[in-house]
## 1
Amino acid sequence: MSCELNYPYKVHGLWTANLGGCSGEATLTGKTAILKPDETTACTITLKFSPVKLVASQEGSDADCGFGHRVYAKGTYPNRSSRSPKFEMEK
């Protein structure tokens, strides 16, 4: 699993952004996925799936997760589909 995150903001009227990303193997139990990103020890990202939304939460600071300043993996997002995700195993 991988994630790409950003925190957009303006400096002197121009848009810029702090960036963050993570990757690792997630554990899926029921409708909850837990990711402990590679190369971190104090970061856990939890994804809870429902028919209408995805709720992401993060334990650990932006720095603990290897993200840029004020970049977090948390929020509530609408589902684009009610179908269960298909996961492919790498060979």
## 2
Amino acid sequence: MKFRHFLKSFYKSKKSVIPVLALMIFSLIAITSVSAAVYFGSFKIADTTYNDPDTTAASTEMTAQVSETQVVSSEVSESSVDSSAIQAVALDALEEANAPPLEESSAPPLEVSSAPPLEVFPEGVKVCYLTFDDGPSSNSTPQILEILSRYNAKATFFVVGYGRLDYLQTIIQQGHTIGLHTDSHVYANIYSSDEAYYADLEAVSNKVFDATGVRSKIIRFPGGSSNRSSLTLGKCPGIMTRLTVDVEAKGYRYFDWNVSTGDADQTLAPVETILENVRRQSNGKSQICVLMHDTNAKTTSVEALPAVIEYLASQGFEFRALTMDSPVFHHERLNN
């Protein structure tokens, strides 16, 4: 009875109908909105489901990468990094890991100089590099080796392809250096073109390698880098300018000299002339590279060798063989 009475009173009162109806409509809208939010996921609820360790790790790594590189726009919230983005990153990484290796280029590698830095001697150290061109020879080479052994001096032999190559192994065993001089020693052919020079160099290099197992990279141009034969005989202007640069780029080291015994200036230079040239040209120098010749015709070169060694030793010089890191001796003027 009381409830009926309340309803009658309620409907009679117009002032109370409107607020109540408004309250009911508002409540209905609120309930509907919350239900929809929960259903479609726009309303955040604490996740109590099990997280897969791999997926969680990938999500964590993705978030860290985004934070470190700062590539995420300030307009996008952290919650926008969803599972589809994580899956895309994972798939990219998987494809990269399983991708076949890139095919190696079939082009030959560029020839780059492998020459090491030059040796620098302390102040006051005097070094002599004795060098012998145009050998080995049947008569002179054994005598030269015996003299060098007697004075415990090391030297360098710039050899030709037609010499007594059976002596090469002995030269190396005694601690001396084999340098490449020329194969044919025919100036007109060697200096006729760049290609002709390298063909000659390769020929003598292969012969030395076959005889010793050593691939020498130390060379001396026939006539030195200042030779005139490249013009008068080879008739190839500019060849020495090119070769002196190119051989170094190919990993060789070329050596001229700063002391000449003069044993090639005449058929048979007197012993005293050879010794005087050494005295005069070595004066005031700390490092010297001495040019001599190793052929059967140069008998006075062999005769003068003991006196040359003794004089230079008295001046404080020690005798070494050239190596790839020895100081270079280059002529300043190229006659081409």
## 3
Amino acid sequence: MTVRFRLQRQRVNHQRAAAIVLVGIMLAVSAACGGGASQTPDESKRVTLGHIPQWTSTTLANAAARAVLEEFGYEVLFEEAEIGIIYQGTAQGDIDLFVDSWIPAQQEHWDAWGDQLERLGVVYEGAVIGWVVPEYVTGFESIEDLPEHVALFDADGNGLGEVLSYGAGSGGSVVSQQVIEAYDLPYEVIDSSTTALLAEMQARLNRQEPFLSLGWRPHWMFNAWPIRFLDDPKGVWEASTVYVVARKGFSAENPELAAIFELFEVPLEEFEAMTYAYNVEERDPDEIAREWVDQHRDRIDAWIAAVRGE
């Protein structure tokens, strides 16, 4: 079954798009004058990435991947869809690559489609979700200590500590409830939205008020705010590794792309710096990615030389 997407195809940059148009005009003129067969652009150098524009992690991973692929002469397009459709579309070949596959955070989607997918490489490790508190909240370091500090986080006075979260039914909220049950905590999850959660965290930090909140890496919050994760001795939260995935057999058919994404990596600290530039400084993701390439030119050049056997 062919998957239909709500998608927005985006050209990598206006100069490349203009060049492609110019080449097309030249080919058309050549065919008209010489009577030759019609020709089309080299589709073997065109790559489609699965895209979730509302996810910072996908936006920046895609921007970095696109900047690197341009170094190898590829044209990059986006297919926009929600996460389940992206896995399905990649498995079925409607999408070439998805560069933001969090395992185990996205395990349910891998379980559904993983037998039709392959992993090409690791973008970064240490992607983690958990509970955070401000650095000025002292005297404990672990989730298992929270029963002794209910009053500190009981803003509405109902006798239950509050865990601020970003959306009912989200993975973070679901696992937060599992944490409450695993540790038998007298706490409740307070859901809002990502925007509302971050605004509330900022407001309480400004007032130097305590809070217990969902936090995750990579995210600019760890560049901008004095916060820390609480230890999780029971291991309910699991750190994820972020992979590049493609349909089964893709690497055999596209050895250069497979070689590129075996090397492609954005270390967690570098990725978080990119999230700060994007979310806090409100810079363009393509500009951020190009700057990242320029800052790590020796690394990128080494990738190019390794892939091309130079």
## 4
Amino acid sequence: MKPNPISKYAAKETKLRLQRFSKHLRHAAKHPEDPGAIHDLRVSIRRVVQAFKTFGELLDPAAIKKLRRRLHKVMDLCGAVRNCDVALVLLEQVGVTTGASVSRLKKTRSEAAEKLHRRLKKERHDRHAAPDRRSHPKEREWKLDQSFEANLSRAMPVLAEEFFAAGTAALSAHANYQKLHQFRLQAKRFRYTMELFERFYGSEMAGGAGILKELQDRLGAINDCATTIVILGHDRGAVAAVGKLLRERKAVLKSYARSEFAPQKLDWWKHWLAQPARNAA
């Protein structure tokens, strides 16, 4: 039986992301001291996981389950290192370059990096084979009797609606930092889902991805501050300095969100997401 083109596309795109993950893993294993290498590895993992979430019903579930466990472990170890890197950078930005908190963070970073390095050396020599197509795909989100374009035209505008609704809630006057963090994760998922179908869209895709990237950066800057404050614990001076920066960054986010994610902007997103190009796969 000839494979369904949607299932074939899903397997191909997932494989590409796993290949990029393997490349970043090898680089991070060689350079565990490099914050940029750790960051790139984390991003590549998120892109793989989003491919699994998007195409899960079309791919071998056993292979996905096994890979997700391994990726989750690496992600946790990367996160422990990156939190220290972020905190040290923030403290330097607010003028805190010495003291007990800085010493403790450097020590914690060194220990976390050693654990990560051991894991990456092991992962580097293991295979990360892409999941094959599922023998009998389930049909929940994907309608295999419809064209790729019809599937995207139906599903992508809904993702935009859900994203805008989440943003309205997260950016409300009473929202807490946990809601902002969840909105940040949703922004990543939305952007990485869009990337899976980049070839189906024109210049609007690049514009939309750029808007989401800027939003991620602003939300990430806030999350960095909130995470650092938790790590600092009872260091009142450092917490106060980072807290001031946090308030400044939150104001920047509010201004950007009012500009780019006003309710009327949703129509633009839904319009172009509902019109994928034909014969792009």
